[in-house]
């Protein structure tokens, strides 16, 4: 919502959104950053809703529960961003503010001097910037490019919960309904919940791939897959399927598959 409002800026400026940056080993995130000729503005966007009141640097809910004051986070972001500018040899004033984007947010006793911009003030705020004259130089554009290059791509796996073999439910699950109520009937796996049939060979292959995804550092062996699939009682059957669908390395008790 804020992005679409700030896009309405008609002045010459550069807008960078959702930056994840690092300086002196500290990571920080900037929701929205506006580069103008004489100033950089950082915006922290908050979508709080409801009635709150301000009291000695705290934002409190009517029931006294506290929500974290975004200014604390913002001053950290601002300070780290200044350090980064210093490293990049770029000198420009930085101004940071909190945007409360939700029109259903009220903050009683909000001090006027705090850099808060409430929903009803955003339009005016944009108009005010639009009335300023600003012209960018090649240096501003270079700075924006540098910041984009420094932007850290988040590893999608970094937020995975910790897990190990012991915790994970073993057994073949149904590819259609995910149930573990699988029975083996001859060449096929039968799901007693949704009545889906799947070739045992296919099911084993699928489960080996799950195993490899979950435990990329572990070697795939017949014993491990036997424990993993749980319901395949015949090791010969497992071995045959593994040999057929994966590359086989090593001999006897050292053999594994990739
Ligand atoms: Zn099923």
Bound molecules: zinc ion
| Major sheet | 5 strands, mixed
β-strand number: 14
Provide the gyration radius in Å.
Answer: 29 Å
Number of helices: 7
Distance between the termini: 48 Å
Give the CATH class of the largest domain: Alpha Beta
Poorly predicted segments: none
**Could you state the order of secondary-structure elements as H and E?**
HEEEEEEHEEEHHEEEHHHEE
Strand content: 25-35%
- What topology, given as strand order, has the largest sheet? 1-2-3-7-9
User: Overall mean pLDDT score?
Assistant: 90
Q: Pairing-aware structural class of the strands and helices?
A: alpha+beta
- At the fold tier of CATH, the topology name of the largest domain is Trna Endonuclease, Chain: A, domain 1
In terms of quaternary structure, the protein is single chain
Q: How would you characterize this protein structure?
A:
The protein has 258 residues and is an alpha+beta fold. It has two domains: 2-150, 3-Layer(aba) Sandwich (Trna Endonuclease, Chain: A, domain 1); 165-257, no CATH class. 31% of the residues lie in helices and 26% in strands. A five-stranded mixed sheet has the order 1-2-3-7-9. A hairpin with a 2-residue loop joins strand 10 and strand 11 (188-191). The radius of gyration is 29 Å and the shape is elongated. Bound molecules: zinc ion (ZN). Residues 174, 176-177, 179, 191, 193-194, 196 line the site of zinc ion (ZN). Zinc ion (ZN) is lined by residues 174, 176-177, 179, 191, 193-194, 196.
